[in-house]
């Protein structure tokens, strides 16, 4: 009996749950927020239960460091997920595949071939061309005094850049129009963010619940649309002489070349698996970050003025901001860092799974346990951050803290061996787009709305988007000055 009570004592604290469903009903549609509230009561290491599945929830920088640095290898797998499995052709991708030889090989190839700095720089002309065209189209709306939906236009912009760099084709006039694609993405984020019953309960019961709830048909629809698009892009590349014409490889060219060199078989599912990661991970995340940054700037006019003064000072006399100019913009970079702190758009990172028996801050942890790292909660921890709810870019003045996975209080891109490999690609786009939007235009709230009235609530899903769309009126500063 004594031994038994010691064992129980050694478990991390667990919030009380219900029979059978455990803590599932407490998660709601924004689990990062519910889990943060639960952690305030139960501490930075909690063991919850999702149906029949135990899950460890980490909510402090110290716990994140143990998972992502001290014991990185033991926390580096991904749990099986019915929805992710379907969308990645049975885990033939990089983001959702378990920690394995396959993942190591994919990650190595992709980091060396796709996400290296040289490749990111080689796409600079595409980013510049797309951003310039976008700024001109905003100028047309500014001329008419129209309010713009910042989420829709940022989405179109990041989609255009990814379409050109990854698929070698223009987004406009593609198989998917803007609204259709954005809806499809939000549906993909919603299914990936929901807990399928089959992942938490015995298979037959879970399968039946998911079928009745309509999850299977929603998932099938998303999968079919993605697959049709990838099939089309791949066939177009296989049939084209594009590479011979311009010598420049887009991401699909690179993946097909690797496929020819390494795989040699006809099936293209691993190419499609990686394309799914780029599609889901690369478009919406950047757009959402731009939206949150602009929303915070409009809500904090003194920060807006300071950052615009800096950008306009360093680019005085120029009609746009280039990627080289951005290196001079110290305060602007702090504004982006503060946006990533307050609004990490993948708030629970991508779920991890332990690869072996391990430990967490002294608690023994079993092999095969699901792990959530609540980057959203850590970035608002009052023990680390002064006035954590406030948007204060100056907090990064003279601070060495960055978002590249070495500082565990700020983890918008995760950390350890499964850190986001798209950081450079994402930041190059976000910085160029936002700097040009702030350089050329002033941004006003429509219909006499005041900054205090701006709603900052988050929507539901694996990524955090602004629930009430951000509508702003651009005022063309370029023509005001000339
Ligand atoms: C603001 C933009 C972005 C954010 C906030 C973001 C965030 C994340 C996060 C939190 C993870 C999980 C890391 C972990 O488990 O520790 C991740 C993984 C990943 N991201 Fe990103 N991401 C962004 C942009 C991109 C882009 C542009 C791409 C590719 C074009 C990309 C591709 C991936 C892939 C492939 C993984 C899986 C890595 C693995 O499991 O080995 N992401 N990202």
TrEMBL record:
Keyword Signal: yes
Cofactor: heme
Residues the record lists as binding heme: 420
Keywords: Heme, Iron, Metal-binding, Monooxygenase, Oxidoreductase, Signal
Family matches, as Pfam families: p450
Iron among keywords: yes
A GO molecular function held by the record: heme binding
Domain of life: Eukaryota
Classification via Gene3D superfamilies: Cytochrome P450
InterPro entries from the UniProt entry: Cyt_P450 (IPR001128), Cyt_P450_CS (IPR017972), Cyt_P450_E_grp-I (IPR002401), Cyt_P450_sf (IPR036396)
Family under the similarity heading: Belongs to the cytochrome P450 family.
Name this polypeptide is given: Cytochrome P450
Organism: Kalanchoe fedtschenkoi
